[in-house]
């Protein structure tokens, strides 16, 4: 892709990806990898909760740290707002290192408050990595009567693991983490594991351009027959809206799946309603997921290549947050993502013009106010 060549993003071959479609499955796979770690664990997350799920992770990390494994945990100060440092004491006492990104308590911060670390990366021993939408908290797992969140998280094996580790190290140093042997951690050869080509695409406000947004727009501009998007939140800004309309207007089938009811950000959902009429007139198909909270971030172009990771289709992700996504080409993962997407549509509600027209005056007013708010921020 042209945007990858211009950004000089490395593409590696011979990777294997294992897709986890639900929060509970992805979290269990991450815990299993942590418990098997031998040399080091690098974990970067936007949200870390002091709850049952968070305690399972801290306990597993602490045990590995006591066993001599180098453990480094980086979490976002706003995403993990309210996290008591005492919660992390067992990990630190065991020899692990913890670090909060961009704390609001700084009198003079080098970062604006909206600059957040929205990345979710786990790298174990430099051999296996996880990336996707999963944060660490009970809402993502099947706790009690609540269903696990519908998410997309992948385990990566192969040369792309080193690129994900480099992204973690970049975040660690940006957050003023302790000095590390960068070259030592990244040297050596990661064994080949499969047949898929993967490019790791980091993005953020200190990069030269909005690479994720530009990649999605380029994908829309070059698509020939089908584009599928899954995103919990939809507030993308005019350039992406124009690209969506242009693709649908020239005959590309564009499907958009977003969070319905339940939604953890209902105000964003309301604001999205004001964007749907233009998309529907252009021929886009818009769906709201109903089975559980839909938190996956996936784009699939012509069934042949896909983007998945941490970026939502909103201006916060495109402008203000540090994100990381995978661009995947191959016979396995894009097909797997298409199958999951089509299965999700079976439990989704299709939004059309009559459905929007049936909203009462109060709902229409709230949707309008939400849309104005989202455009202002």
What's the structural blueprint in terms of helices and strands?
Layout: H1 2-7, E1 11-22, H2 23-35, E2 40-45, H3 52-66, E3 70-76, H4 89-93, E4 97-101, E5 116-117, E6 121-124, E7 128-132, E8 150-157, H5 160-174, H6 182-186, E9 196-203, H7 211-222, E10 226-230, E11 234-235, H8 238-249, E12 253-259, H9 266-273, H10 276-282, E13 285-289, E14 298-301, E15 305-309, E16 313-314, H11 315-320, E17 321-329, H12 333-345, E18 348-351, H13 353-357, H14 361-376
Parallel strand pairs: 2-3, 3-4, 5-17, 10-12, 11-16, 12-13
Antiparallel strand pairs: 1-8, 1-9, 2-6, 6-7, 7-8, 9-17, 10-14, 13-18, 14-15, 15-17
Helix pairs in contact: 7-8, 9-14
Stretches with pLDDT under 50, minimum 5 residues: none
Count of DSSP strands: 18
| Overall shape | globular
Oligomeric description of these chains: single chain
Mean pLDDT over the residues:
90
Q: So, CATH architecture of the largest domain? A: 2-Layer Sandwich
Helix/strand structural class:
alpha/beta
Using the coordinates shown, work out and report the CATH topology of the largest domain: Endonuclease, Chain A
Question: What is the CA-CA span between the terminal residues?
Answer: 31 Å
């Amino acid at each position: 892709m042209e945007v990858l060549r211009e950004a000089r993003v490395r593409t590696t071959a011979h990777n294997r990806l294992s897709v986890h479609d639900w929060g509970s499955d992805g979290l269990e796979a991450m815990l299993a990898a942590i418990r098997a770690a031998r040399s080091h664990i690098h974990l970067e997350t936007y949200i870390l909760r002091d709850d049952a799920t968070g305690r399972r992770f801290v306990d597993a990390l602490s045990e590995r740290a006591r066993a001599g494994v180098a453990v480094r945990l980086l979490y976002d100060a706003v995403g993990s707002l309210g996290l008591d440092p005492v919660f992390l004491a067992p990990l630190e006492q065991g020899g692990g290192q913890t670090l909060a990104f961009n704390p609001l308590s700084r009198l003079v911060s080098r970062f604006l408050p909206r600059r957040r670390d929205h990345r979710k990366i786990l790298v174990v021993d430099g051999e296996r990595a996880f990336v996707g939408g999963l944060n660490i908290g009970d809402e993502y797992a099947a706790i009690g009567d609540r269903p696990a969140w519908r998410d997309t998280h992948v385990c990566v094996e192969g040369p792309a693991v080193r690129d994900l580790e480099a992204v973690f190290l970049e975040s660690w140093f940006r957050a003023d983490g302790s000095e590390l042997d960068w070259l030592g951690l990244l040297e050596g050869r990661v064994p080949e594991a499969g047949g898929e080509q993967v490019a790791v695409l980091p993005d953020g406000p200190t990069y030269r351009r909005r690479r994720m947004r530009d990649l999605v727009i380029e994908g829309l501009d070059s698509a020939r027959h089908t584009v599928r998007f899954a995103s919990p939140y939809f507030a993308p800004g005019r350039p992406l809206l124009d690209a969506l309309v242009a693709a649908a207007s020239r005959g590309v089938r564009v499907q958009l799946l977003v969070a319905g009811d339940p939604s953890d950000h209902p105000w964003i959902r309301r604001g999205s309603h004001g964007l749907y009429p233009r998309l529907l007139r252009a021929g886009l198909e818009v769906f709201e997921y109903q089975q559980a909270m839909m938190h996956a971030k996936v784009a699939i172009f012509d069934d042949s290549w896909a983007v998945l990771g941490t970026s939502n289709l909103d201006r916060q992700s495109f402008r203000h947050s540090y994100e990381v996504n995978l661009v995947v080409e191959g016979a396995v993962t894009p097909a797997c993502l298409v199958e999951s997407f089509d299965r999700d549509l079976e439990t989704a509600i299709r939004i059309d013009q009559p459905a929007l027209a049936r909203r009462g005056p109060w709902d229409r007013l709230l949707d309008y106010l939400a849309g104005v708010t989202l455009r202002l921020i």
